[in-house]
Amino acid sequence: MTERQRNELRAKAGDFKTYSLVLFALGAFFYLGTIIPGALETAKKPFALLAVSGCLAAALYCSRRAARYACQLEEEENPFEP
Q: Which UniProt keywords are listed (predicted)?
């Protein structure tokens, strides 16, 4: 693996980690909007909770992608360690 490919993997892992944190924070703010009394109409709460679950699912996906890239990078740097 070339240095350029290693740098790309590091960049991808960092980007996906950042995406994960941003999506988690967005989901948390959506959730706060659903539990604050009077902040949201009762009819709109299911849509807000769907947005919360979508943000958290996307955050989990991005977190796993970041971990996969980091693991791949570590395997390439240390191929002989068990």
A: Membrane, Transmembrane, Transmembrane helix
Report field, pTM of the whole predicted structure over 0.70: yes
Residue extents of the structural domains in the chain? 3-77
Residue 70's pLDDT is what?
A: 93
DSSP 12-68: HHHHHHHHHHHHHHHHHHHHHHHHSTTSS-GGGHHHHHHHHHHHHHHHHHHHHHHHH
67 C-beta neighbours (distance < 10 Å), count? 14
Enter the tokens of residue 42.
């009762």
What tokens does 66 get? 């970041």
Q: Are 55 and 27 in contact (CB under 8 A)?
A: yes
